[in-house]
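ugh ok fine here u go
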Amino acid sequence: MSRANSKEVSPPTKTPPKTQKKTVELVRTAMALGITVDSQYKVIAVAAGSEAHGKFEVKDQLVKLNGKPLSGGGPFVTQFGAIAVGGKAKIELVRKKVA
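structure:
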């Protein structure tokens, strides 16, 4: 009896997620945060030397502020501005991974 062509079958490889969830925590200061956000809560600019520099990236999608969804709550600048100076801000975002 001859053996039929048998091939080892390797387990399917998992495709790594194309997005990464991240939370940025900071203390609200009197100075501007240093990001520009569009009406869809996507970061379109990060100011060099700002508090946001190195924490946010252009194209980050902001999702929540202090546990509350940003969508439906008005412009980001208004929602962020409602936090008292010295108050904690926890910003949840989704970042696309670069292959």
